[in-house]
Amino acid sequence: MKKGFIILIIFILVCIAGGSFLAIHLIRNIEVNEGIENFTSVNLDLTSMDVKIEKSSENAISYRLQDVKKQKLDYSVDDGVLTVKEIILDKHFVGHDDNEVIIYTTNDSLIVNGNLVAGDVEIQNVALKDSRVTSVSGDISIENGNLNNCTFVTTSGDVEFDGQ
Prior knowledge:
By secondary structure, the chain is α/β, with parallel strands linked by helices. The chain has 1 helix and 14 strands.
């Protein structure tokens, strides 16, 4: 009987510890999806996030951060320019694979300029002009796109293009 009681106590303690871990994990995570005003240009300044830009029926931004105590994402639209900046709040921060920002646009054509440290860039169904995107460690992919005067540079990654 004593052995069963000890096992029950251990089980309860494990459940409490697991629940606490889950609660802490959920508190630190954030997922946002908001509509934004129209823009014709995008400026990116990201450290540890993947970014996707895709044609849509509405202008919106959606993002996911894994640790809001160590990072945040600021964005604004001024004079048709969407600026997206990741801010690292902890100098010992290590990025997560799940950090991602998705930009939805109603425009067929955009100017995209950006600097990424560790993140992939994926642009779908949007024509780009006068754009420059650099990534230190990440892939750059343009699907079903049309490019005019564009430069894409990655130090450690691939550049893929499907379009004109």
